[in-house]
Specification:
Blueprint: H1 2-35, H2 39-52, H3 58-70, H4 74-82, H5 90-106, H6 110-123, H7 128-232, H8 236-261, H9 265-286
Helix pairs in contact: 1-2, 2-3, 3-4, 3-5, 4-5, 5-6, 5-7, 6-7
């Protein structure tokens, strides 16, 4: 029985030694592959150590995360780095935060990167790379803040200019609107004045037409009255005919008287003609001169 227990202890010891030997061998192979840049082989061997050999080692986990990082598998790299934030090894914890800061800065997450670099310095103050990255990230954030402030100021100035431009345009539009309204009112007033003037002209034309019509009527009436008076005057031909008739009627008694007076008929005619001329001359000398210009349309009397 005692011999059996001793045999088991020996076999267990040989088994542990064999595992340690294999672990050390795989670690060396993984490290050599990593240093040679063969990250896929290194990652395969690290996964064999953690999954098959059940090796729990923060250094192996960090090397796995670095292999994922170099293979650009960001998700796996972040997952493995995150598992080392509570590592008891200050160096491993500091390196994990530093690498996470680098990944965050590549993704433009500068504030998050600054926090990781700060944690890396707190975990290992001797980590000069983390300190350098921390100062660099502070500078980048400061410049970014200044640029953001400058951009905000430019945006504000641009908004102010646009507001002024809009206000100016509104004022111009209002002025144009007022001017248009004023022009419309002025045009309307001018149209009203023109219409009133046309109406007044029409009234004046109507009055002139009425006056002309009345004047024409008066002239026509005067002409008609003049014609009537002319018709009432005896015509010269009718007077001569009447005189001839009277002469014929009185010719016989006159001849008898001339014979009694022993005056010839020719001598009597000469005497009558002379008397007639004197009478006409008398009337012409005593005729009244006209004071007004005669109206050609009115009769002489």
């Amino acid at each position: 029985m005692k011999f059996f227990l001793t045999a088991l202890l020996v076999l267990s010891t040989f088994s542990d030694l064999d595992k340690i030997a294999r672990v050390n061998k795989v670690k060396k192979e993984a490290k050599d592959a990593y240093l040679n840049g063969d990250y896929e082989s290194a990652l395969s061997k690290y996964k064999y150590l953690t999954d098959s050999l059940q090796v729990i080692d923060d250094d192996i986990r960090l090397n796995m995360a670095n292999a994922y990082y170099n293979l650009a598998d960001t998700a796996q790299a972040i997952d493995n780095y995150s598992q080392l934030f509570d590592s008891k090894s200050k160096a491993v914890k500091s390196t994990a935060h530093q690498q996470m800061g680098i990944l965050s800065s590549k993704n433009q997450k500068f504030e998050e990167a600054l926090d990781h670099f700060k944690e890396a310095i707190k975990a290992d103050p001797s980590n000069t790379d983390a300190r350098y990255n921390y100062e660099l990230m502070k500078k980048i954030l400061k410049e970014q803040e200044e640029q953001q402030q400058q951009q905000d100021q430019q945006n504000q100035d641009q908004e102010n200019q646009e507001d002024k431009k809009d206000q100016k345009q509104q004022n111009q539009d209002q002025q144009n609107k007022d001017q248009q309204q004023q022009n419309e009112e002025q045009q309307k007033q001018e149209e009203q004045e023109q219409q009133q003037e046309q109406e007044q002209n029409k009234e004046g034309e109507g009055e002139e037409q009425e006056k002309d019509q009345e004047q024409k009527q008066e002239e026509q009436q005067k002409e008609e009255e003049g014609e009537q008076k002319e018709e009432q005057k005896p015509k010269p031909e009718e007077g001569e005919e009447a005189g001839k008739k009277e002469g014929e009627e009185q010719q016989n008694p006159l001849s008898e008287k001339l014979e009694e007076m022993k005056i010839t008929e020719e001598k009597a005619k000469m005497i009558l003609e002379a008397l007639k001329n004197k009478e006409i001359q008398y009337y012409q000398q005593n005729k009244r001169k006209p004071t007004k210009r005669k109206d050609p349309k009115k009769p002489d009397w």
